[in-house]
Amino acid sequence: MELNYKTIFAKRKTLTITVERDRSIVVTAPEGTAPEKIRQLVESRKLWLYEKTRHVQKYDPLPHPPGKELVTGESLPYLGRLYRIELVEGDGEIRFEQKFIVPRAHAGQSPAFRAWFIAQAEEKILPRVASHARNLGVAYKEAKIGQGKYRWGSCTPQDNVILNWRLIKAPMFVIDYVVVHELAHLIEQNHTPRFWNIVRSQAPGMDKAKAWLQKNGALLEQEL
């Protein structure tokens, strides 16, 4: 069986291999690594990669398709809870007051809500990165909110931490788990037992968070 994979070269010391949620395989390698060495790594993990890429579904399916129209009575997830939408007259900004107050001018316009979610993610998630980094004793170059779909977060070879804006829909203990997970890669690049011990020490709700993502990940991936 031949496995297709993408190779990213970066200034780092070790080879790592990951399977994205779209089942694509990505190998990150030190600059100048011989293609044969990369191929040997993929070959050595072939059984594991086969199981990962043939996994039936990463997340539990949704019980029913979520509504995407911004109409009164519809609800959207925010920080782990569903809140009702209420349309009001006017064309001002979206507001949150234990429900979403949406000017009627934005009705049916999901980009406006997406922009609101991204702004909230920047305000509420990025400070968590700084806080957890201090607790872990690590330093990153930049933390930012990203718009990719197939990762909740990533720690780049340049020590930048990127977190998916969709996380703002999840409870804070899930957000903290993803943040700590990515920061732990600044200490241990691979998912070794040491890596998971580091994550668990800073995110004691790790198992609960992983179970929550298993159950609700498909909901988070919706645009709204």
Automatic annotation (TrEMBL):
It comes from the Bacteria. Coiled coil: none annotated. Pfam families: YgjP-like. InterPro entries: UTP_pyrophosphatase-like (IPR053136), YgjP-like_metallopeptidase (IPR002725). Residues 13-215 form the YgjP-like metallopeptidase domain. CDD domains: M48_yhfN_like (cd07344). This is YgjP-like metallopeptidase domain-containing protein. It comes from Candidatus Accumulibacter cognatus.
